[in-house]
Amino acid sequence: MKKIQIRFVAMAAIMLMAMSVSAQKFHYGIKAGINGAVQSGIAEYYNNNNIRYGLTAGLVGNYRLNDNMMLQAELNYDQKGSHSSQIDTHFDYISVPFLYDYSFGKTYHTKLSIHLNLGTYVAFLTNAEKIQTIDGVEQTTDLMDASHKAEWGALMGFGFRQPVGKHYLVWDVRLTLGLTHFQINDNSSNNKMISVTMGYEL
């Protein structure tokens, strides 16, 4: 798993360095938004009521292959976990997504364009805790030792890109699915997240 993580981060770093060679095709920026996260079985799509609402924010770099296609790498902070009336779980990650982005309809050189993206990511755990209310008293339990320090998964989404001079406003809706389990002794649950973000690219 460590070798996969190192290779993935190295691939993203090489991509970002290659992007900087051609400034006209390379854009970078920031983004931020909200997400709804759950922790449940990978095939459970209808029974996800224990939603934790949190923050997602990060840095974006993309390289345009042509008017319709580009490659994109990101460095994000994601708040995942779950929420119920008595127990909250907080799992926070630094994630590195690597995406293929396709724009249809309008092109990147014209007005508002619609785009689809598909990719993979590796995420590194920065915080894991359970907050439980027992007899009206809130108790916090550290879960770092019981959790995997890294997660690998897939993501897909769609959005809009609006030129503002030579820059861009970007809106994205994205589904993130952890393909590895987040707890060491629990193979029944995965992290899942839907996020809505707004970004600005130079």
What attributes characterize this protein structure?
202 residues, mainly beta, eight-stranded antiparallel beta barrel, 9 strands, 63% strand
Walk me through this protein's architecture.
The protein is mainly β and 202 residues long. Helix content is 9%, strand content 63%. The chain has one helix at 2-19, and strands spanning 26-40, 52-64, 69-83, 87-104, 113-134, 137-142, 150-164, 167-178, 190-201. Strands 1-2-3-4-5-7-8-9 form an eight-stranded antiparallel β-barrel. Strand 2 (52-64) and strand 3 (69-83) form a beta hairpin. The longest helix is centred in the first third of the chain and has 18 residues, at 2-19. The chain starts with a helix and ends with a strand. The model has no long low-confidence stretch (mean pLDDT 88).
As a whole number of angstroms, the C-alpha radius of gyration is 18 Å
State which percent range the strand residues make up.
over 45%
Q: Averaging pLDDT over every residue, what do you get?
A: 88
Q: What is the number of beta strands?
A: 9
Give a short account of the largest sheet: 8 strands, antiparallel, barrel
Taken in chain order, the helices and strands follow as HEEEEEEEEE
Order of strands in the sheet with most strands: 1-2-3-4-5-7-8-9
End-to-end distance, in Å?
35 Å
Shape: elongated
Q: Helical percent range? A: under 10%
Total helical elements: 1
Based on secondary structure, the structural category is: mainly beta
Low-confidence stretches: none
